[in-house]
Amino acid sequence: MSLDWIYNAISWILLRWHALWDAIGIPDDRVIGTNWAWILAIIFLVVTLRIILFPVFVKQIKSQRAMQALQPKVKALQEKHKGDRETLQKEMMELYRTEKANPLMGCLPMFLQIPVFFGLFHVLQHLDPSISDEYKQLYGWSLEQFNSAANAHLFNAPISAKFGSTPAELAAVGADSTTVKILAAILVLTMMGTTFLTSRQMILKTGWAEDPQQKMIQRLMLYGIPFSLLISGTLFPIGVVIYWVTNNLFTLAQQQWVLRKFPPVQMAGAKTASSARPTGTGNRGINNPVQPARTGGLFGRKPAPEPTAPVVDTKALAPKPGAKPVNPKKGARPANKPKG
User: Fold this and answer.
1) Could you tell me the CA-to-CA distances from 281 to 284, 287, 291, 295 in Å, in that order?
2) Phi and psi for 2 in degrees, rounded to 5?
3) DSSP 74-95
4) Would you give the end-to-end CA distance of the chain in angstroms?
5) How do 157-158 and 153-154 pair as beta strands?
6) Which tens digit of pLDDT belongs to each residue from 6-41?
7) Strands, DSSP E only, in the chain?
């Protein structure tokens, strides 16, 4: 299937934003080694796409809430039909249909962004000054626009270059290999860090699952995907990494707002720092409900300290040095007791 319609759509949005920044006076020339009109065009491409996808994101949140509420019923079905996978699948599909929950809806925004990501990757990869004028004018680009974008830089590194660019590719755009590698490495590490934080932000609110499969998925999302970017990120053009980092920052802000406004229910059997840590003596604090909306955030906030019992000053109650000890039994003798 041809993806030209995606390439044309992404190119159109990029060119419209670039034209807007040019119209309000942001020059095409480099300032601090950067062609800001093109960098801002990529950043606001993210904003445009996230606004378009916001209704889908709301549906994703609702689906996640519904799936979390169904976890006790799902676990009961797993216990009931243990060893009978076919019956379990039928019962779970019926449960999802009855409760109007869709497990795939939680991944829909990510799936919708995949073609956009690869479309942007193709468009930026296409910005090669050595191709013919005919190919430069694909996807609605004029020759002037293409040549301007192909030579756009971020801190003296072309946005079409990548960490793994060959010397010949860098020579074609007049780039310095050391500059490109340093900037690309910083951006890739930032991309990994923000990807990690988006997953950690959600886990801070919902807690770690007790179910081994769910916990494995959480660990994969938290550690596996960011680590995989260490390798794949070296193959991404700098412009794509800018898109990814901006998208992650937008996701962090959006998730933080949604999680504060609509706190998620605690996952069945999930462990959080506040529920796993013993507080006080006996069973105090063990059965306290977890309130995710109040005890977490991007980096987490420490819960308010529990009130403690007043400390008794034992020194004040101790007898003073040299004082005659008092026998409470003798002091309790009745005053009118007859003498023997």
Assistant:
1) 6, 13, 21, 22
2) -75, 135
3) HHHHHHHTTT-HHHHHHHHHHH
4) 118
5) antiparallel
6) 999 999 999 999 999 999 999 888 999 999 999 999
7) 153-154, 157-158
